[in-house]
Automatic annotation (TrEMBL):
InterPro entries: Band7/mec-2_domain (IPR050710), Band_7 (IPR001107), Band_7/SPFH_dom_sf (IPR036013), STML2-like_C (IPR032435), Stomatin_HflK_fam (IPR001972). Residues 41-199 form the Band domain. Gene3D superfamilies: Band 7 domain. It comes from Ameca splendens. This is Stomatin-like protein 2, mitochondrial. PANTHER family: STOMATIN-LIKE PROTEIN 2, MITOCHONDRIAL. It comes from the Eukaryota. Belongs to the band 7/mec-2 family. The keyword Mitochondrion applies. It is found in: Mitochondrion.
Length: 356
């Protein structure tokens, strides 16, 4: 019964203590949740990811680990409660001047974690406030080293430089800055208009350059195409001439072979029986054909004295045929001479008459 009454009174006292105890690290800017300072009830249960700093008679004694812990009443007192989780802090918006004298309004988010609860409790009065102020001053310092254009281009390097600068100062506080991210960067309206005009001018410049490069490439392609067309045409003409010459050479050879074969066949035919008669008939036919073509191929016509006597012309041709059929020429030269002498005057050219 007494034990139950003691537990009820302890619970009531603990509830009153929690209601009246001040919160740790609570500022109007952050409003972050933090555990209240619990009362020493001899038997304590520490939550996970929390570190309770205990003082004995006003002096640091030890840090309670998560789980079951025992304390001495009156002598031991829980002085600080530190959260070991990752803490997110909103860095308020502030003004900063860049290297080219442009005033910027910039804010960010800071991520940190407590690594040493002892240093975080006794190294600085208000760790969150100290880290926030350090982040703001470091941000202004880093922005003053960059021009406006580099601020937007080198945003990641700016964040890493701020984290490095914060960690150099916060090591003594037992706090580790994990990362820093810039949320918004606000520039003056006139500067924003100038930046917009610069962007438009840059885009027009790139469009003009791309258009000129396209025109140049098109002209090069057209010239290259014409060059290739001329080369192909000349090669085609060359191949055509070569093929034509080869064809003509083959035709000449074929004609020569055919003529040689015809001559051999004619020679064989003349050696046979009645060969001279066949030759005489062929000569008479050529004579009549040549006389009929005189008025067709030239304007100069040599007419015999008896052009109206057709019967006489036919009789003369038959006489020549009979003479050639009866006579066997000794040599080809003598035969040709005889034939020329027996031909009528209108079939002998003036040059041959002068020669005779």
């Amino acid at each position: 019964m007494m034990l139950r009454t003691l537990c009820r009174r302890s619970a009531a006292i603990l509830q009153q203590t929690q209601q009246s105890a001040p919160r740790l690290w609570v500022t109007p800017a952050q409003q972050r949740w933090a555990s209240t300072l619990p009362m020493n009830t001899v038997v304590l249960f520490v939550p996970q990811q929390e570190a309770w700093v205990v003082e004995r008679m006003g002096r640091f004694h030890r840090i309670l680990e998560p789980g079951l812990n025992f304390l001495i009443p009156v002598l031991d007192k829980i002085r600080y409660v530190q959260s070991l989780k990752e803490i997110v802090i909103d860095v308020p918006e502030q003004s900063a001047v860049s290297l080219d004298n442009v005033t910027l309004q910039i804010d960010g988010v800071l991520y940190l974690r407590i690594l040493n609860p002892f240093k975080a409790s006794y190294g600085v009065e208000d760790p969150e406030y100290a880290v926030t102020q350090l982040a703001q001053t470091t941000m202004r310092s880093e922005l003053g080293k960059l021009t406006l254009d580099k601020v937007f281009r080198e945003r990641e390097s700016l964040n890493s430089n701020i984290v490095h600068s914060i960690n150099q100062a916060s090591d003594e506080w037992g706090i580790r800055c994990l990362r820093y991210e810039i949320k918004d960067i606000h520039v003056p309206p006139r500067v924003k208009e100038s930046m917009q005009m610069q962007v438009e001018a840059e885009r027009k410049k790139r469009a003009t350059v791309l258009e000129s490069e396209g025109t140049r490439e098109a002209a090069i392609n057209v010239a290259e195409g014409r060059k290739q067309a001329q080369i192909l045409a000349s090669e085609g003409e060359k191949a055509e001439q070569i093929n034509k010459a080869a064809g003509e050479a083959q035709a000449v050879v074929a004609k020569a072979e055919a003529k040689a074969k015809a001559i051999r066949m004619l020679s064989d035919a003349l050696t046979e029986q009645n060969g001279n008669a066949a030759a005489s008939l062929s000569v008479a036919e050529q004579y009549v054909s040549a006389f009929s073509n005189l008025a067709k191929q030239t304007n100069t016509i040599l007419l015999p004295s008896n052009t109206g006597d057709i019967t006489g012309m036919v009789t003369q041709a038959m006489t020549i045929y009979s003479t050639l059929a009866k006579t066997t020429p000794a040599t080809s030269v003598e035969a040709a001479q005889v034939k020329k002498e027996e031909l009528p005057d209108f079939l002998v050219s003036p040059e041959e008459q002068r020669t005779q």
